[in-house]
């Protein structure tokens, strides 16, 4: 019984890795091999698809664009969420509970509902097709998430910490930056990770708000699939490359992921 | 924690309020505006009252996609929640395999949604995909681009692949927070594994599982990119979920009035359901 139960996680991980293996496998094949033979391993191993991506600006700029708006969004979301989360975790004020739920409702808003009005709004303010448009649009769901996660982590810090600091003569800004922020560093890391994650994986808004200059890599992929035939090897290589940034950041927060998903409250 | 009453805390919240209001209230008002007006495409608008709402609420197309959405959401919840709990229960609690398991399991969560769709597309294609080819080789007549049943099977399997790890991670976090003493006490009492699960593990996981259900409900109800890239809503309309239908109406046909009315109804459904989960969660927290 005990040995049998070991198989469950192993089988599950195998199931998770199969589609990824197929994608990576395909990215090293030539188009002829993909369409012609059915091979479990590339027979004519080629790096052609990766070379195309790293030498063609319409491809590699997609990655630069995605990383640019994701970074702006992450910094912005965490920076404004910090004081707000502090307020929610330490003080009672008029309408605090309603405000907290209202913030969460924005996490529930389907991107499909906001696609058209966002297009009109960001065109009207002249930000269409810039990094800022996508970064700001993604704050809609990332700020509420960051506030929730940070509030959870901050509520775990005893209030005596604040009081002791004031007794020691710290002013509020000095206390916040010198003592409080280092104390909840793990929480900030987790919040940043989640902002990164949800901005990185979202496509509908990113695609709607960009045309040429700020086009994300994910949108470049859909364009290639529809216009220049169906170059599966290239598509697979581009897809494989989008997995790498995620894999890197997961490694850093592996022990905190679950706590983040539980909004800092496990 | 006892909180101090302090109205100045509003100043801390102001930046968040300003940004989210810019992003939420202005677009939402645009939607409300369109939902009560009629236009003939020349930028002149007429008051239309609740016409679009009546049209959407009585249209068979909306009922059909709402129905498909409900079936999809409840199917994936019914699979992912028990499966996630089972995997979390069988995962090692200590040792070198724990971080390996966690990182590998979290991997699907960080893949861009259209890549998930594209990956499953080439994985399931009957001629060149590993899954499609295997299923056909062992005797199934499987083709997700032609047969609605196969399209549904693939779509649900893709979502299980994509999101079960979220449930696993949450349930696992709940499980590791149980002190060893609880298990030792259960052992002395001679409790069976089922009793340990029912009276020790399940109560400890209640909170995180509520969050898991809330998140999975919201996100699966809003799902757009993955099924769109996988099946394009087809074959026919068989996998056209609410978001796919909405984008077709709003950005494809540019029918602003019906699209806006549908958006508001859609949003309200999610809001109402999530409010129920949220209230349950907060009540648990108070206890």
Automatic annotation (TrEMBL), chain A:
Keywords: Cell membrane, Membrane, Transmembrane, Transmembrane helix, Transport. Signal peptide: none annotated. It is a multi-pass membrane protein. It comes from the Bacteria. PROSITE patterns: ABC_TM1. It is found in: Cell membrane. It holds the Pfam family BPD_transp_1. InterPro entries: BP-dep_ABC_trans_perm, MetI-like, MetI-like_sf. CDD domains: TM_PBP2. Residues 63-253 form the ABC transmembrane type-1 domain. GO terms for biological process: transmembrane transport. GO terms for cellular component: plasma membrane. The chain crosses the membrane at residues 7-24, 67-88, 100-119, 131-154, 175-201, 232-253. Gene3D superfamilies: MetI-like. PANTHER family: ABC TRANSPORTER PERMEASE PROTEIN, MALTOSE TRANSPORT SYSTEM PERMEASE-RELATED. Belongs to the binding-protein-dependent transport system permease family. This is Glycerol transport system permease protein. It comes from Roseibium hamelinense.
TrEMBL record, chain B:
Gene3D superfamilies: MetI-like (1.10.3720.10). Its main location: membrane. One of its GO terms (biological process) is transmembrane transport. It is a multi-pass membrane protein. InterPro entries: MetI-like, MetI-like_sf, Sugar_ABC_transporter. The chain crosses the membrane at residues 12-36, 70-89, 101-123, 160-178, 208-225, 260-281. Keywords: Membrane, Transmembrane, Transmembrane helix, Transport. It comes from the Bacteria. SUPFAM superfamilies: MetI-like (SSF161098). The keyword Membrane applies. Belongs to the binding-protein-dependent transport system permease family. This is Carbohydrate ABC transporter membrane protein 1 (CUT1 family). It comes from Roseibium hamelinense.
